[in-house]
Amino acid sequence: MASPLTAHPARALKGDCTVPGDKSISHRALIFGGLAEGQTRVEGLLEADDVLRTAAAVRALGAAVEKDGGTWVIEGASWQSPDHTLYCGNAGTGSRLLMGAVAGQGVKATFDGDRSLRSRPMGRILDPLETMGVVSDSDAGKLPVTVKAGRPEAIRFALPKPSAQIKSAVLLAALGAEGTTIIEEPVLCRDHTERMLPAFGVPVTFKDTNACREIHVTGPARLKGTALRVPADPSSAAFPVAAGLLVPGSRVAVRGVLANPTRTGLYDVLKEMGADLQFEHLGEEGGEPVVDLVAAHGAMNGITVTADRVPSMIDEYPILAVIAAAAKGTTRMEGLGELRVKESDRLSATAALLRANGVTCREGEDWLEVDGGPIPGGGTVETHDDHRIAMSGLILGLAADNPVTIDDAEMIGTSFTGFTELMEGLGATLSVGTP
């Protein structure tokens, strides 16, 4: 059953908070730990539904995965074909990376997911795996997908689009291939896999050419268990940061946020819009840079966000559109075609979110324009089972003249456990049901 939730116009939001661990890194920590010899201990793991589905899959493949207090402990093992379908829920990253890992280990596994995940393209993963000699079975490149047993071959592969999921699936498959796999990356995208592999004892080398960056991994590779700490997720941090920027009189600090340059596109854009946003206490955790983000309310201006920004902020466009609704002038976002194959048609869902609450916007095949000004609010947002649309709608309600209701808050838990409690701790008013 749907669980509507309403955000009410807020007074000044104040306080410090910590958002859950980064989802991308959490998926990888579980998969790498499951492949490694010995024990891997992970602190700060995101305990949301998407990641817990990956933990269950790694366990079904033969590794031991348990929580010990605040630490997740993974005892790696030689993977075996599971005796049941690996159900990934809504986890696009988890399912796609697991396909690559299963292919690399030469075992057979069938993957499935919820209605949303079944609608998302998996051919983009299966095609390069097929080039490596991996046999799979699916209906038009959609879930359910069966990856069949057999060892992959090392290849040279040019990424057809800036996708960390495609890149990581090939790298994971390459761990079991004989020889060196080379990935050509014309546009840099999330590099968590390349950063994490050396922590597990697998060398990764790079070669920069005029046309691309080459990533080299030689297999078969043996991973060694290690200890990791997962930084706070910058995609989740975007929501309390946005609230701090939008609600008059607010000052919100989010501590220990991942500041990997392939993930900070939103924050760079916000600075260009004139946002009062500070990066403080730069440090490092597990080979990844981390910062404290401090956001305060102030005037912002609309800008053009060009397509080259997409790889570093693909998940943040819905909340950027909400911020743009309060900026002076028009914000234009380009190169957004990939949003149409996320958990929902996220581009259309974002435009509908704004229109339902009196914000003027225009939508094209791969672009969105938002006219800033006062936000009337008062509408109901159709979330389409998309956690980022749900949270963006609630943040809009905090800055609007009238309450904003989302039709279902249940899926927020796929990425941001404790979202409601965190926002209420900063001074937000969120009520169950419709106003």
Explain the overall architecture.
The protein has 435 residues and is α/β, with parallel strands linked by helices. It has 2 domains: 5-21 and 231-432, Enolpyruvate transferase domain (UDP-n-acetylglucosamine1-carboxyvinyl-transferase, Chain, Alpha-beta prism), CATH 3.65.10.10; 23-229, Enolpyruvate transferase domain (UDP-n-acetylglucosamine1-carboxyvinyl-transferase, Chain), CATH 3.65.10. The protein contains 13 helices and 24 strands. The strands form 6 sheets. A 4-stranded mixed beta sheet has the order 22-23-1-24. A 4-stranded mixed beta sheet has the order 2-15-17-16. A 4-stranded mixed beta sheet has the order 4-5-3-14. Helix 8 (234-246) packs parallel to helix 10. The mean pLDDT is 96.
Distance between the termini: 18 Å
- Using only CA atoms, what is the Rg? 21 Å
The largest pleated sheet is described as: 4 strands, mixed
Specify the CATH homologous superfamily of the largest domain: Enolpyruvate transferase domain
- The second-level CATH architecture of the largest domain is Alpha-beta prism
Helix content: 25-40%
Main structural class:
alpha/beta
Ranges with pLDDT <50 over ≥5 residues?
A: none
Q: Count all strands and give the number.
A: 24
Query: Which strand-content bin applies to the residues?
Result: 25-35%
Under the CATH scheme, which class of the largest domain? Alpha Beta
Helical stretch tally: 13
Gross morphology is globular
The CATH topology annotation of the largest domain reads as UDP-n-acetylglucosamine1-carboxyvinyl-transferase, Chain
The number of domains is 2
